[in-house]
Write a structure and sequence with these properties.
Elements lengths: L12 E2 L11 E8 L7 E6 L4 E5 L11 E8 L5 E8 L6 H11 L8
Length: 112
């Protein structure tokens, strides 16, 4: 019997390091908001501590949380063009989440 984790995100979960492997694809990124959007761009600290830039120029909702999940398409410059986002509140363990990202992209990929 196969074990499957419930996946609320329809795309691969990635951190800043893995973005380059998914150019042109839809991904799911979780990060800590570094400040208010600037010129339509939102800057996040990714789960691995690296920078993630979100293009929110076509976003229809405000980000009202310290941590956020963004589903979007990775552009050639590694920015993520937001399709949708979900607030994750102010109490989220990015280091633990990064472990999930690494497992879901590594040898245990088949259970995610």
């Amino acid at each position: 019997q196969d074990i499957k984790m419930v996946n609320t995100c329809p795309a691969p979960r990635v951190n800043s390091t893995l973005l380059g492997q998914h150019v042109g694809s839809t991904v799911c990124v979780v990060g800590k908001v570094k400040g208010p959007p600037q010129g339509g761009m939102l800057y996040l600290e990714g789960a691995d501590g690296g920078d993630v830039v979100i293009d929110r120029s076509s976003a229809s909702r405000e980000i009202n949380s310290e941590f956020v999940e963004v589903v979007g398409v990775v552009q050639p410059d590694r920015t993520v063009e937001e399709l949708r986002s979900t607030d994750f509140g102010s109490d989220f363990d990015l280091k633990m989440y990064n472990e999930v990202v690494l497992l879901s992209n590594g040898p245990l990929k088949h259970i995610f």
